[in-house]
Design a protein that fits this description.
This protein is of the alpha+beta class and about 110 residues long. The protein has one domain: Alpha-Beta Plaits (2-Layer Sandwich). Helices cover about 20% and strands about 35% of the residues. The strands form 2 sheets. It has a 4-stranded antiparallel β-sheet with strand order 2-5-1-6, with helices on one face. A hairpin with a 2-residue loop joins strand 3 and strand 4. Helix 1 runs antiparallel to helix 2. The longest helix is centred in the last third of the chain and has 12 residues. The protein is globular, with a radius of gyration of 15 Å. The chain starts with 6 loop residues before the first strand and ends in an 8-residue tail after the last strand.
């Protein structure tokens, strides 16, 4: 990978009901996350059984995943912001170490 420099970040994957997408993205925006990707219509099996990902009536009735690459300094504020939400609603946050190119996209 000539001329491509890698930088270390954390990948945050947030799974929640589509009805709360605005809450989640507003929280990420206020914390200072530079960008994110939203994947709709998730399928999978968890503690509440199998969840089918196709739309029933509207996008609020499905699970979504919001993916963001953030510096480690933003992980704790993100988790603190979601803690009250997840004590009332289902879902999960995954955090993993990643390497990315074009670090300029993730910095001030």
């Amino acid at each position: 990978m000539k001329n491509l420099k890698l930088g270390s970040l954390k990948k945050i994957e947030i799974i929640l009901e589509g009805a709360y997408a605005a809450f989640a993205t507003d929280l990420l925006d206020r914390i200072g996350v530079k960008g994110y990707t939203i994947i709709n219509n998730l399928s999978g099996k968890g503690s509440h059984g199998f969840h089918d990902g196709h739309l029933m009536f509207n996008e609020d009735d499905v699970l979504i995943m919001i993916i963001a690459a953030v510096p480690e300094s933003l992980v704790s504020p993100i988790l603190q912001g979601f803690a009250p939400f997840y004590s009332e609603h289902s879902g999960v946050v995954f955090i993993s170490d990643i390497q990315v190119t074009r670090m300029v996209k993730f910095s001030d």
